[in-house]
Each structure stands twice: as C-alpha cells, then as structure tokens.
Amino acid sequence: MLNRRNFLTAAVGVAAATGLTACAKKDDGASSSSAGGSKAITLGFSQVGSESGWRTANSDSVKSAAKEAGYTLKFSDAQQKQENQISAIRSYIAQKVDVIAFSPVVVTGWDAVLKEAKAQKIPVVLTDRSVETSDPSLYVTLVGSDFTDEGRRAARMLEKVLQKAGHKGPVKIAQLEGTTGAAPAIERAKGFKEVMDAEHKDDWKIVISQTGDFTRAGGKQVMAAFLQSNPDINVLFAHNDDMAIGAIQSIEAAGKKPGKDILIVSIDGVKDGFVAMSQGKINGIVECNPLLGPQLMEVVKKVHNGEKVERWIKTKESDFTQDQAKDALPTRKY
Asked: What's the pLDDT at 333?
C-alpha cells in the first residue's frame, strides 16, 4: 500500500457541463443549483454502494452537503463493482463535469481512467478510501480516515476490553475482514496486526480470518462457519459494525453470549452498533466518521478554484466502550 502522506498536492484545471449516463444505479434527485443565476460547480460523485449503515450515512452526507453548497451533484451507486465506478467516472469525463470525486471499491486498477480525467483537465478527489497509482498527480487529495490507525486503535480497544473482562489465558481471535482489496480491509488488518505482533505475540493469535464483504449477511454467514471450524474462539475483531451485528446472530444461534463468551471489537460507530453495545453485545467500537459531505464540498470548491490543498485531509474520530454507549447513543447522527 502506498503511503498517502508522501505525495505532493496536484491541482489541475476544470471544465463544466451536465448529464449522466446510466452506467450504474443513479440518483436524479441529488442535483441542485446555486441561487442568483450564477453557475454552480458540477460535481460527479461515484459511491461504492449501499452495503452498510455507514455507507448510507456517507451518501446522505454528500447529497445534503452538495445541496447546501449549491452544487450540481451527479451521483452514482456502483453497487460494489469497480467496473460500474469506472463507467461512471468515464461518463463524468464525457459530460465535462468540473470535479470528480469517488470512494473506490478497491485499491488498484484506476490508472487508465484517472489518466483520462487528467487529459481532460478534470481534477479528481478521493473520499473515504485511497488508491494505488503509478502517477501521484492523477488525483489531488484524499478526504478520509486513517484506516491503519483505526486498526491500531482496535487493538488498543481490545486490550481495554480484555482487562475489563478479567480475561486470562490465550486470546483466540476471529477476524471478519472487509471487502477483499479495499483500502479499509487492507489497512485495518495491517494496523491491528502491528500492535498484536509488537506487544502480544505470546498471548494473541488470529486463528481464522475471512471477508464478510462489509455486510451483515456476510458477517452472519462467515461467523457461523467460523464457529463450526473453531468453536473455541473467544474474541471477534470485525472491520465494521454491520459485520459484527450479523455475527452476533450466529453467535447467539450457537448458544453463546456475544460480549461475554466472545468479546467483540468493531469499527465504524453506526447507531445500530451503539444499540448492540448498549445491550452488552459489542464490547468496544472504534469510530470511523462517515459525515464527510461538508468537508468534501469545501475541498471541491478549493480544487475548482485552483487552490492548493493538503494531500490527505483526515477526519476527526473517537473510540467508545460499553460504559459510554448509552450516553452516546442519543447523539449519534448515523
């Protein structure tokens, strides 16, 4: 994985137009225009999909922030398929939008389409997830979280959870990974393993790990298989809350108590995750903030105006334990 901090900021020229071809599921109601007759910035945005509560909140944030900013938003849902995103980006290039933003399904395979955008002088902004490119100037900036650090934070959270539970003996961890090849899956696993290898070689072990594709159904199905092959699992590390919630169903179906027989740490911080935590079924959650819309629109404006921006604009996030869940739940916005 390339270090996103090491690239220099690239700002390029822009063009403007409208329209969107049906390369993926589209939201025609997401378009808006500025008041007073002035020309609105046209932003083409390709979303990964709607696989989780986090993603839905992220999409809603982008749409509402674009409307508030007075931008014309062209929004497409890739339904977790890279080919749909590439088609959407090409349609935005053909329509000569001012700026393209997207949250990539996977890390690799973007060079060709990003070169096409650069050739047409349309700047590209990444949101939520990073990509690997042969040319750092193919995108201007990333607005999103530090997924590797989220993995480290999850490991630190597990330390607290184990201590609070008074756990003694080996820690046998099942890991529910995110979508194969996706930046958060790669980097969250990496960060967690960094802490585990550095400080817990003798007592922590990931006994089984498999993708649940960031979905509840995937988490439920894979956890059921985990429990059949490794019934002595005592910790679950889930790369997102939705997989953890799905896994809870399989844990209960197996006659075990989530949060007690199997300690659970997950990442995201969606409201349903906080509900499960307030019920004692999830022990700790590392927040990954999906409400990136306002921050993204500020960046889009700067990029459109040719201003320099930081190469990586990080989001602010917190961590939560069970004893904080009930108090925090009423304030959760997603």
From this structure: 82
Q: Rounded CA gap, 224 and 121, in Å?
A: 49
pLDDT at 4: 40
pLDDT at 32 over 90: no
Q: What percent of the chain has pLDDT over 90?
A: 84
Q: At what angle are helices 82-95 and 111-119 packed, to 10 degrees?
A: 10
Neighbouring C-beta atoms of residue 261, cutoff 10 Å: 12
Contacts of 92 (CB under 8 A, 6+ apart): 20, 44, 46, 74, 100, 117, 122
Tell me the pTM: 0.83
In single-letter form, the type of residue at position 236 comes to L
- Nearest-angstrom CA–CA distance, 6 and 20: 34
43 pLDDT above the threshold of 70? yes
Q: In 3D, which of 239, 329, 56, 211 has the Cα closest to residue 64?
A: 56
Dist CA 49 CA 24 (whole Å)? 10
Distance between terminal CA atoms of the chain? 29
> What's residue 326's pLDDT?
87
- Is residue 19 pLDDT above 80, yes or no? no
Measured at the alpha carbon of residue 47, what is the angle toward residues 246 and 285, in degrees to the nearest 5? 40
- What are the pLDDT digits (tens) for 257-276? 999 999 999 999 999 999 99
Instruction: Report d(CA 98, CA 121) in Å as an integer.
Output: 9
| Kind of pairing between the strands at 72-77 and 99-102 | unpaired
| 3-class SS string, 27-76 | EHHHCCCCHHHCCCCEEEEEECCCCCHHHHHHHHHHHHHHHHHCCEEEEE
Amino acid at 299: V
| CB burial of residue 112 (10 Å; 0-12, 13-18, 19+) | exposed
- DSSP string covering 219-242: HHHHHHHHHHH-TT--EEEESSHH
pLDDT at 332: 86
